[in-house]
UniProtKB/TrEMBL annotation:
Cellular-component GO terms for this entry: external side of plasma membrane; integrin complex
Membrane-topology descriptor: Single-pass type I membrane protein
Protein name in UniProt: Uncharacterized protein
SUPFAM superfamilies reported for this sequence: Integrin alpha N-terminal domain, Integrin domains
Annotated transmembrane regions: 947-969
Length: 994
């Protein structure tokens, strides 16, 4: 039997499991291309890399054979549409999301042959890809909705700790979707809640897990690309095997401006980008932008569980229309050995397809891609290259992880091997770096009897590579160029130095060579070469003695290198080096010059309008730029030769180029917290008793803490008074922001009714507790400063009687953070389940607002309250954080009252920014939300009237009526006082006709 569905979705992980054999650095010259079997289609729809140790197995070179793993033969189930490996020597899971169960069994237990259940299932395999156990199908055997179309396995992945198998169930509950967690130890399934999902949200389209809240906890991540009114969203879940449940912790919504149908959340990748031991998140939106260019949004963990978007615009690749950048995202390991994890992003519809490689960094991710793999460059016949990605595993045992790319449109898959990185450093060593013009020392005689000033030059290289591969020598090709800066319009006339060709005697300005470095560490150098300076009395005389002499080295690796996969130089290290020699002049009366440099100046803070200036405090959000106005003075009479000004500033400032100043790029490194700018005071020397002024600008957009800038004036000579050579400028940072909190309850009035229920009845389902209430709390930052890690304290009335743990008032079911942040609330402590699968709030117990009398307000001074804290992430000016509290009124407690009454329940929320933030208005930092609960009318439980009351009332009425009649009779009320009307005999005769 072969591993393929009816549409023949196939993978090739089994191709790469031969046992252990022996980005800019991804090899594109000799990729390994795998073709699907002749009878299959869509080979490469999903890919995985897998490796395992086979101690007794013969070692083979990595080939391009395709092997079929036999699992089961059943058409239309799409076996292999999902594939995941837990890594080296780990397990593998493959799924068939269209697996069906037929016939369908109704709730009444009747078999209905008209329907089949599209339930899906997954298979676990050992490291050698043998089947580990029976298929895992969380929806198998369950009756009807919501399980009948769950399609378990549309996505699948082992949890971060490896104890559980996560499966996406996009068809669960009428397409709301969800996650199913299968405990590999307890062998049971747990489904995620659907309370925050609408029909056809497709939660579980993509899933993953990581350590977001702490290094010991594992949270699940699920993408719902059709949720959030078709804009997509990602949800974080907390999982507890002991409690046998999965709870929603927070929602991650796309940045503002993302259009409907962007499919945000269709691809997700959990990875620790900045190596802080907390997981970060990448979310793909392949249909974002006007022409489906696609975006990937990076959310960096603030180490408190909150995920802050690194850039609201996201990663864009080359922004090619219809490329669908972000269709696939994969963690690919540390490709360049810089200590940070890297990621790959697929754009399968960009031409024949493309894959972009991004490097992680201390700040999250480098937004500029490091390498681009084009499908057309690998094989012109590839189609949909980049539709699936996998990495992490070192397939060729060179100490670097490799990348697999699927191209199911052409029934192929490609393995890109990672080239080892060589940390080679080159330098030029000079026998001396000072040339005294007036001196006759260090002269060399050439043929013709002419003397030239000269020095010796050697080229040295060191290899500091610590790769796992055996070192077999390193061939480095190099060139040395003399006085390159003096080449004007292609002519060498102004060059002041030359080499002498030993064979032809020609003067050369550039030499080339190859040096074989035969060992790691240390340094190997070429034999010295003599460099000659032009004589002053020649026609092409040495006219420029002010600027330094430059010796420029360029180097690279020799190719071909003799092996199948050549190494590559570390591109974070320079492949050039410049050595300099300086001309020295004598001072008038002294052999050594003794200048006296001093620095003075001030800091000017500029707003967005440059005409607006601020005081000494840098008010974040208002100050745009920082300008240093400096004066360098030489207080001595001697000249200060080759003097310079060194400005050291924190990396939070961004230097803006100034004419005489250059950024010192030798300090460019993610580990550097301080950078520097070097300014040339004069081209040759600053005369005695003179000064020069500078203005240096920095952007303050990324400043978050107090700033210290140190400015130092230096020269090549010993200074007469070094105490005034440096000056420190300290700029205090002021955070100023107005946080405002608002809140409301939906509904804000409810009624409670019915008779007292038993505890068992109330705890059976959440709907038995009482009416549902959703209270929303919003925190706004009106700016101007950015605010990080604000603390929100929320207090909810929990118990009517502090001493009675059963006297619940508001039973908290869920706390959901929309935006960046997390809360530590204890929700649903009794673990009461819900029978409702929809997300609409029942309002059958709500009541229209009306004037209420005899209201009793229950505040925390009278009842037992539950308090918890929420840590809010980064709030820029105009941002908001939203927290939704879902509770139910425990109406049993109010019904038990001797006299049910109208009560008001207070929920109080207060926001507290960090101590460093100053607020101009603290009166809007707290809000009280009132929920009014009223008894049903008439009040349930009134006592019935006793029967004797009715009897006495009737008898009393009869007696009163009799007394009244008797009195009237005595008064003659019933006797006639007027004459009676009598008719005469004539009046009795009938009337005659006329």
């Amino acid at each position: 039997m072969e591993l393929r569905p009816s549409t023949n979705v196939l993978h090739f992980a089994f191709i790469l499991t031969l046992g252990k054999v022996f980005a800019f650095n991804l090899d594109v010259k000799s990729p390994v291309i795998y073709d699907g079997p002749a009878e299959s289609d869509l080979f490469g729809y999903t890919v995985a890399t897998h490796s395992y140790n086979a101690p007794k197995k013969e070692v083979h070179q990595l080939g391009n054979r395709t092997v079929t793993i036999e699992v089961e033969k059943k058409t239309e189930q799409w076996l292999g549409a999902t594939l995941h490996s837990s890594g080296e020597n780990g397990r593998v899971v493959t799924c068939a999301p269209r697996y069906t169960e037929a016939p369908f069994t109704s709730k009444e237990g009747m078999i209905d042959h008209r329907y089949i259940a599209l339930i899906g299932r997954c298979f676990l395999m050992y490291r050698d890809l043998s089947i580990q156990r029976e298929a895992i199908s969380p929806c198998k055997g369950r009756v009807g909705q919501p399980y009948g179309y769950c399609q378990a396995g549309i996505s699948a992945e082992f949890s971060a700790g490896g104890e559980d198998l996560l499966m996406g169930t996009v068809g669960f509950s009428s397409g709301r979707g969800g996650l199913a967690a299968y405990s590999l130890s307890a062998e049971k399934n747990i489904f995620s809640p659907t309370a925050s999902l609408k029909i056809h949200a497709y939660m579980g389209y993509a899933i993953s897990s990581g350590n977001f809240w702490s290094q010991k906890s594992t949270e699940f991540i699920g993408g719902a690309p059709r949720g959030n009114d078709m804009r997509g969203k990602v949800m974080m879940y907390a999982y507890s095997l002991d409690r046998n449940d999965i709870q929603i912790k927070s929602e991650i919504l796309p940045p503002p401006g993302i259009k409907v149908g962007s499919y945000f959340g269709s691809a997700i990748c959990v990875v620790d980008l900045n190596n802080n031991k907390f997981s970060d998140l990448l979310v793909g939106a392949p249909l974002a932008s006007d022409s489906d260019e696609g975006r990937v949004f990076v959310y960096v963990n603030n180490e408190m569980g909150a995920l802050d978007v690194q850039d609201p615009l996201g990663l864009v690749g080359d922004n090619i229309p219809y490329g669908q950048f972000g269709r696939a995202i994969a963690r690919v390991g540390d490709l360049n050995k810089d200590g940070f994890q890297d990621v790959a992003v697929g754009a399968p519809f960009e031409g024949n397809g493309a894959v972009y490689v991004y490097h992680g960094s201390r700040s999250g991710i480098n937004p500029t891609y490091k390498q681009k793999l084009r499908g057309s460059s690998v094989d012109p016949g590839l189609r949909l290259f980049g539709s699936s990605l996998a990495g992490i595993v070192d397939m060729d045992s060179n100490g670097y992880p490799d990348i697999a790319v699927g191209a199911y449109g052409s029934n192929k898959a490609v393995l890109f091997r990672t080239r080892s990185i060589v940390n080679a450093e080159g330098e030029i060593q000079l026998s001396r770096n000072q040339i005294v013009v007036e001196s006759d020392d260090n002269l060399c005689l050439l043929d013709g009897g002419k003397y030239y000033k000269c020095l010796n030059l050697s080229v040295c290289f060191s290899n500091k590579d610590k790769g796992a591969a055996k070192f077999a020598g390193l061939g480095i090709t190099y060139s040395v160029d003399l006085d390159r800066v003096k080449v004007v319009r292609g002519t060498n006339f102004f060059r002041r130095m030359f080499f002498l060709d030993e064979n032809s005697g020609d003067k050369l300005h550039t030499i080339n060579g190859v040096l074989n470095v035969t060992k790691r560490g240390g340094s190997q150098c070429t034999p010295p070469r003599t460099v000659y300076l032009k004589a002053c009395n020649e026609k092409d005389n040495l006219a420029d003695v002010a600027s330094s002499l430059t010796f420029d080295l360029d180097f690279g690796l020799v190719e071909p290198c003799g092996s199948t996969l050549c190494p590559v130089l570390n591109d974070s290290l320079p492949t050039t080096h410049t050595a300099k020699a300086f001309f020295m002049k004598r001072c008038k009366n002294q052999k050594v010059c003794v200048p006296d440099l001093a620095v003075d100046g001030k800091v000017v803070l500029l707003g967005h309008d440059e005409n607006r200036r601020f005081d000494s405090q840098l008010r974040l959000g208002l100050v745009k730029e920082l300008m240093l106005q400096l004066t360098v003075s030489n207080k001595a009479s001697d000249y200060a030769y080759y003097s310079k000004l060194v400005v050291k500033y924190p990396s939070s400032l961004s230097y803006q180029r100034t004419g005489d100043c250059e950024h010192d790029r030798s300090l460019d490194n993610d580990t550097q917290s301080q950078l520097s700018v070097i300014c040339d005071v004069e081209k040759v020397a600053l005369p005695g008793l003179s000064n020069k002024t500078f203005s240096i600008k920095f952007s303050a957009a990324s400043v978050e803490e107090d700033i210290s800038i140190i400015v130092t004036a230096e020269s090549q000579d010993l200074d007469a008074n070094e105490k005034d050579n440096s000056k420190e400028f300290f700029i205090a940072v002021k955070y100023e922001a107005d946080l405002e909190i608002k809140g409301y309850s939906k509904p804000d009035q409810v009624i409670y009714s019915g008779s007292v229920k038993t505890q068992e009845k109330v705890r059976e389902f959440q709907e038995e507790i009482g009416p549902e209430i959703v209270q929303t709390i919003k925190v706004f930052n009106h700016g101007p400063s950015v605010v990080d890690w604000s603390q929100l304290t929320i207090t909810v009335p929990k118990l009517l009687n502090k001493d009675d743990p059963e006297s619940f008032l508001m039973y908290l079911l869920q706390v959901e953070v929309i935006g960046s942040g997390s809360c530590n609330a204890v929700v649903n402590p009794l673990n009461i389940k819900s029978v409702q699968l929809n997300e609409s709030i029942s309002t059958e117990n709500s009541v229209k607002q009306r004037r209420t009398r005899d209201v009793k307000r229950l505040s925390c001074g009278e009842v037992g309250c539950q308090s918890f804290q929420c840590s809010l992430g980064r709030l820029r000016q105009g941002d908001k954080a939203e927290i939704k509290l879902t509770s139910r009124l425990w109406q049993n407690t109010l019904i038990k009252l001797d006299k049910p009454a109208v009560v008001e329940l207070e929920t109080i929320a207060q926001v507290q920014p960090p101590a460093k933030v100053t607020q101009p208005d603290v009166g809007n930092d707290a809000v009280t939300i009132i929920l009014t609960a009223k008894p049903e009318r008439p009040v349930a439980g009134k006592k019935s009237t006793p029967w004797w009351v009715y009897l006495v009332s009737v008898l009393g009425g009869v007696i009163l009526l009799g007394v009244a009649v008797f009195i009237l009779y005595k008064l003659g009320f019933f006797k006639r006082k007027n004459k009676s009307l009598e008719l005469t005999p004539e009046e009795l005769l009938p009337m005659k006709k006329v």
